């Protein structure tokens, strides 16, 4: 199991990440960062990762296949 930790370091690779605002004013949510370093807010707006203020955790890894 992966141990995720919150960090102020901004993601530098595309993938899925947890994000939460700096004051933890809302629940954390998952965003997908694209190859050019942008993600989409839940309200539909786009933003560059480097301009977002908050904490990140990830990238979120795919689950392993269950062995039978």
Describe this structure in words.
The chain has 68 residues and is an all-beta fold. It has a domain at 15-57. The protein is 0% helix and 29% strand. The protein contains no helices and 5 strands. The chain has strands at residues 15-20, 29-33, 38-40, 46-48, 55-57. The two termini are 18 Å apart. The relative contact order is 0.34. The mean pLDDT is 92.
Secondary-structure blueprint of this entry?
Elements: E1 15-20, E2 29-33, E3 38-40, E4 46-48, E5 55-57
Antiparallel strand pairs: 1-2, 1-5, 3-4
Sum this structure up briefly.
The protein has 68 residues and is mostly beta strands.
Strand content range: 25-35%
Characterize the overall form: globular
The ordered H/E elements are EEEEE
Secondary structure: number of strands: 5
Compute the gyration radius: what is it?
13 Å
User: What structural class do you assign from the helix and strand content?
Assistant: mainly beta
Helix share of residues? under 10%
Cα distance spanning the termini: 18 Å
> What is the count of DSSP helices, taking H or I runs of 4+ residues?
0
How are the strands of the biggest sheet laid out side by side?
A: 2-1-5
The mean pLDDT is: 92
**Main beta sheet: strand number and arrangement?**
3 strands, antiparallel
Low-confidence sequence ranges: none
